[in-house]
Amino acid sequence: MSIDYTSPSTQFTFDVNTSPLFKKDQQNYINILGIAQLNTLENVSLLDIFLSMNNVVEPHYHQNAGELVYCISGVATVSILNPITKQIQNYAIKPGQVANIPQGWWHYIVANADNTHILAIFDAPTPEVILGSDILKFTPSNIMAQTYCINENLWQQTIAPVVPSTYIGPANNCNQTNTVTPNSLQTQPYYNQHPYPYHYPVSYQHSSYY
Question: Is pTM, for the whole model, over 0.85?
Answer without folding.
Answer: no
